[in-house]
# Entry
Amino acid sequence: MRIESISAQPDRVGRYRLTFDDGSVMRLYRQTVQDFGLYTGLEMTPAELDALEQAASRMSAKMRAVRIVSASSVSKNDLQQRLIQKGENAESAKEAVSWMEELNLLDDRRTAEQVVARCVSKGYGLARAKQALYEKRIPRDYWQEALQDYPDQMDYIRQYVQEHLPQEPDQKAVKKVIDALIRKGHSYGHIRRVLDYEDALED
# Structure
């Protein structure tokens, strides 16, 4: 198969468009183009094309992994799953995760700490923090260490109640506040304790 053309400029993610004489198209990063010495008019054997496709797949997964990690905190399992969901094949996704780990750009322990810190800053309760760790596919081996100093968030609950509960609340208003706090991962016992304390102050 012969390369009919190679685009002069890359697309928005840095890939060059290769068009072959059969009309098929391949998008490659500059590194892959250079590694294979590609140019317009080059004739490629089936074996060479297969090797090019595999290299393109590996490079695509790596570059997508970099973009994902740059945008948010992810665990190894989470990153691998996201890559597959984005269309990368499983083998290339696994290799990209290992590559990121070797570069110290991926650390489940550090990601767990970041997730928990973000939950604390948002006023989430312990249950919501655990849910966040689960959603990020962080291995449970790192949960205990990341959660060991998690605050009880009583001050946050108290502040939320004071800001969202009217001075003379009815049952509907109280239920609304309780439901909102439970969605944030706070225990009903803690919420009830704050509400009872506020009632005692009013009395």
